[in-house]
Design goal:
The complex is a heterodimer of chains A (558) and B (301).
Chain A (H helix, E strand, L loop, with lengths): L1 H46 L4 E8 L16 H10 L1 E9 L2 H13 L6 E5 H9 L7 H7 L2 H7 L5 H5 L1 E2 L2 E2 L2 E2 L8 E6 H6 L8 H14 L27 H6 L7 E3 L5 E3 L4 H15 L12 H9 L5 E5 L2 H9 E2 L2 E2 L3 E4 L11 E3 L5 E5 L6 H15 L6 H8 L25 H11 L8 H14 L7 H7 L8 H6 L3 E3 L8 H22 L7 H28 L1
Parallel strand pairs in A: 1-2, 14-16
Antiparallel strand pairs in A: 3-15, 4-5, 6-15, 7-10, 7-13, 8-9, 11-12
Helix pairs in contact in A: 2-15, 12-13, 13-18, 16-17, 17-18, 20-21
Chain B lengths: L1 H29 L27 H8 L3 H32 L3 H12 L6 H12 L5 H8 L14 H26 L3 H9 L4 H25 L7 H7 L5 H4 L2 H11 L3 H30 L5
């Protein structure tokens, strides 16, 4: 008893000491951050230095480790910006992580205390524009953005920039990424060979393969299914074991706004093609091709069936092989062979891959900012340093800190303004480079990393890199991209921006009804004609209202 | 009055000890009540609590217009009431049975074992439950199969889902509840049992005439406390186990608020539902307290 009391008091004291330290550190840091801008500004005025100053707010990151003596106030990356382009970065505050960042940002906005520039989401972009708190940066961008920057941010044809434009005024810089993320069909090719089946080209092929995989059980697990499905098959987040790609094969799409042929937009969830897809899924369910317990299994749980040789067909994103690897590579040996194919189509017209816009956050500049051009300069510099293949020592500082060596400190997180490529040519370059073992054609740092990983598998030095070959190799997932891209076999969501008023109120109701009906049809609990009733209900429960609002928006933003 | 002052002078250290608790309650329970305002607003984050426009009872009207709202309320109350009843009956019976055990170590071991699940989270348990209840490979269906019962998809069937929720909740919590009742049992004067034995009462009669009346105050207290929870059917549990095919029988107020408030960012609406829940809970707990006072002459204060 005595010892436990002693222990308890020691822990308590320790806790108090720790929190006390933490507090004092924080408050000192905050104080310093508050003081800094003033002194810097004074200095600038006095000696007429060309260095301009911009303030921002930053999230910290658990993976960011500072070098000895460095901090958010003073570090190699900020120094490099100041030295190279004459922009001094200060932070109004630092949040502990990204979640806290979002919370603090809300308060900052609420308190009308925006820094010179900040990263906000689509809804906030709209609110800030309406509240007249951020700057129209059309001219600043035009004047200070380099041609390279302008080209970089309009690789997608300007869609993402358009999402940041209100009434012809550019209100923010999209924090973009590549929207051209396709889905593919992954098939156990060793099973295809074993059962003497052709590669899947149409949905009919897919059904035949699924049925053979189920009835002939080539994996010998005794409990085989045709296709892998998990409990959130229609969710945008389901990159593996989902059914979005299956719908796409039937020319049906999950919650996407598409052209209705009369110059307006319509929602994909209630189109007749969905009924066809659901009918097909119901038939598959009846034949036992779908795991009857899929509704309670998440992707990881469902994947266990893949690992233990019960399922040989999976729809998923390009990174799916990383998930498959757990079952495919066991004890340093490849025990499952997988092939990747484009999503088959139900008829003669090709499958269109459903994609989004690739942007949900924006960098905005406060109306009170003294030097908006500084922000654009930061943007220019980031695009230069992040996209070179063979970085110079100077450029390496931006990614690795002052000793220019990759050591897992993640210094790149210190760059206050980061945008990603809207398009990549991995599909053209990587499969060729890996096939010919020729690294000279590689163009980006990402490609270099992938090439090196794939080579490790090919030369046998690391068998666990199996998945990279299935992603980037000559017959890998991305090798299908050039054809999709060339033939425009994708369908992009036509609605972007903040949710409309009725959407905010009603979308949940509609999604719930939809999931309920879709699932019940698939599980053969109700007839497929229930879909028609759902369409009527969807319209009544707010769908018509939303469609009206979306179309008003479309007319204004076309 | 003078007596009070004198008492305070004498006992002020004790009163000071109350202070930290009071301050905590003030900060974390009373000040946040200002947030209730959100229920009557169209809350806009950048305008804040005091700048967002008031929209009267629109959030509440929206709730009433929601097509499945009746079903959601029914599910909530149905699951919660069953949980309260089972959560009383099972621990009390187990406590009484445990009390009859003569060997101390058996009693202790059993007690420890049954209250362990209380410390597992539903995230973890849901994974286990999905395995155990699986119609194709779950142990429960295999056992049922021995008796010729066809496999049942417990988590995918609207007729089974609520009962699975109640049973699994009882399984998780009854061990923890048992502790309270075992403590109550030690309070009963042993001489009462001796007297009863002399009068010729058997075990059953002793239970009904001595044990149960002896435990009554604690039972009433636990019931009163749990009535306040009648609209809490258990978010963690249901959220981790439900799926679209069982929305009909599984969607409860909390899961609904989660989808509406967190996923759709309808903060004002979510607050309105939360407020409604609190009001109903408040009324219920008042009623049960009055009842407890009238029927069992039980008072907390």
């Amino acid at each position: 008893m005595k010892s436990s009391k002693f222990l308890l008091s020691v822990t308590l004291i320790l806790c108090m000491a720790l929190t006390a330290c933490g507090n004092s550190n924080n408050s000192e840091g905050a104080k310093e951050a508050e003081k800094k801008p003033e002194t810097a500004q004074q200095g600038q005025k006095e000696d007429g230095n060309q260095v301009i100053e911009v303030s921002t707010v930053s999230p910290s990151d658990p993976y960011l480790k500072f070098d000895q003596g460095e901090s958010f106030e003073k570090n190699a990356v900020y120094d490099a910006y100041e030295k190279d382009i004459g922009v001094k970065i200060t932070n109004k505050w630092i949040a502990a992580d990204d979640n806290q960042f979002k919370e603090k940002l809300k308060m900052t906005i609420a308190a009308n205390d925006l820094p010179d520039f900040a990263r906000v989401d689509a809804t906030q972009l709209k609110e800030l524009t309406e509240a007249d708190m951020i700057m129209d940066i059309t001219d600043v961008y035009d004047q200070y953005a380099t041609d390279e920057t302008k080209k970089f941010l309009t690789m997608d044809g300007g869609m993402q920039m358009k999402t940041a434009t209100f009434d012809g005024k550019l209100m923010g810089i999209p924090s973009s990424y590549n929207p051209y993320q396709y889905q593919y069909l992954f098939v156990r090719t060793d099973w295809l060979k074993k059962l003497n089946l052709p590669e899947p080209k149409t949905m009919a092929d897919l059904m035949a393969i699924a049925e053979a995989f189920k009835t002939k059980d080539p994996g010998g697990s005794g409990k085989a299914y045709g296709i892998a499905v998990s409990k959130n098959p229609f969710s945008i987040d389901t990159g593996v074991t989902g059914l979005r790609a299956f719908l796409n094969g039937y020319h049906a799409y999950e919650n996407l706004w598409m052209e209705d042929g009369n110059g307006g937009l319509m929602n994909s969830d209630i189109q007749p093609q969905v009924k066809d897809a659901l009918k097909a899924l119901q038939d598959m369910f009846k034949k036992g091709l779908i795991d009857p317990e899929f509704t309670v299994k998440d992707a990881d749980k469902e994947s266990e069936l893949i690992y233990n040789n019960s399922i040989g067909l999976v729809f998923g994103a390009a990174w799916t092989p990383a998930q498959l690897a757990k079952g495919a590579v066991v004890n340093g040996k490849v025990v499952q062979e997988w092939g990747v194919y484009p999503i088959p189509s139900v008829d003669d017209s090709p499958t269109l891959n459903q994609i989004g816009l690739g942007v949900d956050q924006y960098y905005v500049i406060s109306k009170k900012a003294q030097h908006p051009e500084g922000v654009i300069k930061l943007l220019n510099q980031w695009i230069v340093v992040d996209n070179t293949m063979n970085a110079t020592d100077e450029q390496k500082i931006y990614l690795y800190g002052k000793d220019k060596q990759e050591k897992g400190n993640n210094y790149w997180l210190l760059n206050p303004l980061r945008v990603g490529k809207q398009m990549d040519n991995n599909g053209e370059i990587l499969p060729k480079a890996i096939e010919t073992k020729d690294p000279s054609i590689l163009q980006t740092a990402d490609q270099k990393g992938r090439y090196e990983r794939a080579m490790k598998f090919i030369d046998g030095s690391d068998i666990n890199m199996w998945w990279e070959v299935l992603i980037s190799g000559p017959k890998g997932a991305v090798s299908h991209n050039p054809k999709i891209q060339q033939n425009k076999e994708y369908l992009q969501n036509k609605f972007y921006g903040a949710p409309t008023e009725t959407m905010a109120e009603r979308q949940e109701i509609l999604t719930k009804k939809r999931d309920e009906v879709y699932f019940k049809i698939i599980m053969n609990q109700v007839s497929v004609d229930e879909f028609d009733k759902f369409v009527e209900e969807w319209k009544k429960l707010g769908g018509d209202e939303i469609t009206k609002e979306v179309n008003e928006w479309y007319k204004a933003n076309k | 009055m003078r007596g009070l002052t004198r008492m305070f002078k004498k006992e002020w250290p004790l009163h000071m000890m109350l202070l930290p608790g009071l301050i905590l309650v003030l900060i974390f329970s009373y000040i946040p009540m200002v947030g209730i305002m959100m229920a009557f607003q169209k809350y806009i984050p950048n305008k804040g609590l005091f700048g967002s426009p008031f929209i009267g009872l629109k959030n509440f009207r929206l709730l009433m217009e929601y097509p499945d709202i009746g079903r959601i309320f029914f599910n909530t109350i149905f699951i919660a009431v069953m949980k309260i009843i089972a959560g009383l009956v099972v621990p009390i019976s187990i406590a009484i049975l445990l009390n009859e055990l003569r060997r101390e170590w058996v009693k202790r071991t059993f007690q420890t074992l049954v209250y362990l699940p209380h410390f597992l989270s539903w995230v973890l348990l849901s994974g286990i439950l999905i395995d155990v209840l699986s119609p194709s490979s779950g142990i429960l269906n295999q056992v049922l199969g021995l008796f010729g019962v066809k496999p049942i998809f417990f988590l995918g069937s609207n007729s089974w889902f609520p009962y699975v929720m109640v049973l699994s909740d009882v399984w998780k919590e009854f061990g923890f509840g048992t502790i309270v009742y075992l403590a109550a049992l030690t309070n009963i004067n042993p001489s009462l049992y001796e007297a009863a034995q002399i009068d010729g009462a058997g075990r059953i009669k002793q239970t009904f005439y001595i044990t149960l009346p002896g435990m009554l105050p604690i039972i009433v207290l636990m019931l009163t406390l749990s009535i306040g929870n009648v609209l809490n059917a258990g978010f963690d549990q249901i959220f981790n186990l439900y799926s679209p095919p069982v929305y009909e029988s599984a969607d409860i107020i909390d899961t609904f608020v989660y989808r509406m408030g967190i996923q759709q960012a309808q903060f004002g609406f979510a607050t309105a539902v939360g407020l409604l829940k609190s009001i109903v809970s408040f009324i219920l707990i008042t009623c049960s307290y009055v009842l407890a006072y009238r029927v069992a002459n039980y008072r907390i204060f």
